[in-house]
Amino acid sequence: MRILSCVQPTGNLHIGNYLGSISQWVHELQENPNTIAFFGIVDQHAITVPQDPKILRQKIYEILAIYLAAGINPNKHTVFVQSANPDHTYLSWIFNCITPVGWMERMTQFKDKRQKQEDYQSVVSMGLMSYPMLMAADILLYDADKVPVGADQKQHVEITADIGQKFNSIYGETFKIPKFTSNEVTTKIMDLQDPSKKMSKSDVNPNGKIDLMDTPQGIQTKIKRAMTDSEGTIGYDIINRPGISNLVTLFAAINTLKPIDVVQRFQGKGYGDFKLELSESIISYVEPLQKKIKEYLSDLAELDRIIDNGTMKAREVSSVKIALVKDKVGFYNNGKKK
């Protein structure tokens, strides 16, 4: 079994990112110790919107430190930086050439970002539109069986499967078709101030998200201000009571419970008691993680060594797939003939 998942080195990783993706990966490896795993830091995806080069480079190190702090072992699994392996962009160009424009125009994330720009035709880049082809290359290069990511990435995994199947139908069996997987509890932690939208790294309102590196006081303040409703009781009804339901989801994810268990636990108690215990749970959860992250970031030379080794391991796998693709497509392949 092979799994692959990636994180963009942009913004500050928040508790929703961690619970919805990285913690899932670690759980998957603990449950299935024979799993082969690939964990990417996808910096080329990051530049589909403008980035400060210095900050981008810093964020690459931060994501790597978070991976390591979470318990991902780079000696056993492959941790790589996307831009260090040219096979990703090589394959994405081939996918660009076989993927219909209509498929891309239907992608939800592209449509959402395009609508937010008044003059999108001069502001939104082609990179943003062709993002799914690069993501498909990230996944299909490594023959991933499963892609454990948040619910917002489900459509991208599905289009990856479509692209892989189309290539296979044109050129013959080449790519393994992956499956999307997600944890039903942690898959979508919503914004603390607006529970109708997902918690986002790019949100301009810092009170809507809890960053992994937030201080205890910051966490307490954000949870205290988090939206609930006027009923005053702890309940779980995503449609009719999204605010309190989101906090129940967060409590359940942090404490490895089901939402119904949380509701029963706080039966008869009010929002004050619930929010206080939720804050304490989050602080207890992130403090050990924060300590490890800081320790890893104190030794950039070691992080460079891990990146170099991970890149070498990734290319050992991806280069085999690229050689096969070259042969299938009919490209020059160093004089080799099938």
Describe the structure.
This protein is mainly alpha-helical. It has two domains: 2-187 and 300-329, HUPs (Rossmann fold), CATH 3.40.50.620; 206-295, Orthogonal Bundle (Tyrosyl-Transfer RNA Synthetase). It is 55% helix and 7% strand. It is built from 15 helices and five strands. The strands form two sheets. It has a three-stranded parallel β-sheet with strand order 1-2-3. A two-stranded parallel sheet has the order 4-5. The chain is globular, with a radius of gyration of 21 Å.
Briefly characterize the structure.
The protein is mainly alpha-helical and 338 residues long.
Relative strand content: 5-15%
What is the 3D form?
globular
What is the makeup of the main sheet?
Answer: 3 strands, parallel
Domain unit count: 2
The average pLDDT score comes to 91
Quickly give the CATH architecture of the largest domain: 3-Layer(aba) Sandwich
Q: How many β strands by DSSP?
A: 5
